[in-house]
Description:
Blueprint: E1 6-10, E2 17-21, E3 29-32, E4 42-49, E5 55-63, E6 66-68, E7 76-78, E8 82-87, E9 98-105, E10 111-117, E11 124-128, E12 130-131
Antiparallel strand pairs: 1-2, 3-9, 3-12, 4-8, 4-10, 5-6, 5-7, 5-9, 10-11
Amino acid sequence: GKVICERAMYGPGRVWAHNSIGVTDPASTWYLAEGSTGGGMETWLLVQNPGEDSVRVAVTFQTGEGQVAPADLANVEIRARSRWTLKVNDYVPNNYNVSTQVQVKGEGKVICERAMYGPGRVWAHNSIGYARKGN
């Protein structure tokens, strides 16, 4: 049979919640629009490797001031069948306009999503990334 998947997450006391649809296929390039690290907001990047082998990815951020490509995010290893989580605020602090690109280096494919939380975590939302066609 066929299965339809989604993921829901609830904060303490269910003060906030977010939900994301499932992804049908992993890809080697992902784009995650919208994100903010300003005004007390938190943005998180979540990258899953569903494959049987480790993969390496490069993460870059696009902001209103230009691209940010941290050296320590140029060749991140993600083990097989695992998820890697990154707090975007640690790399692009106090920025209201942050989008993200995740590019697999070499072989392999991943799945990406972005979670965002409002100041004091009184609200939250989540979105899967956009996978570039043909990869």
